[in-house]
Amino acid sequence: MDATKWQIPHGEGYREIQNEDSLQYINADLSRTLYVSLITYKNNPRGTTPDAPAPVGPVIEFDVDKYHLKGTKTKPGEVLVIVITFARKDDETFGRQLFADIH
């Protein structure tokens, strides 16, 4: 995934996993994960460029034993899908700040 237009901060000690269409950063005890996926778009067949979708979120969902802070950010021609997963409710402030720091 080529996210060179984006600044994606992550803490020291996070392991990076690069996939073709996403990046993951996972801390040592697996209690926090940052997942980002990049969607790119160009002119449609009529030659017009679609408007960028409005950014979404962040919203928090709880699933079994983890919290997922989800949202998107946009730049011309790109939508960055962001999911920050954390095990402790106390980490919500961390997740919201990390989301805010991605640009």
Description:
This protein is mainly beta and 103 residues long. The chain has one domain. Helix content is 10%, strand content 41%. It is globular.
N-to-C series of helices and strands: EEEEEEH
Number of helical stretches of at least 4 residues: 1
Largest sheet: 6 strands, antiparallel
Radius of gyration: 15 Å
Q: What's the multimeric state?
A: single chain
The chain-level mean pLDDT equals 87
Percent helix, as a range, is: under 10%
Specify the structural class.
mainly beta
Topology, number of strands:
6
- Residue fraction in strands: 35-45%
Which residue ranges are poorly predicted, with pLDDT under 50 across at least 5 consecutive positions? none
C-alpha geometry: globular
Overall tally of structural domains? 1
* Main sheet: strand order: 1-2-3-6-5-4
Distance between the first and last residues' Cα:
16 Å
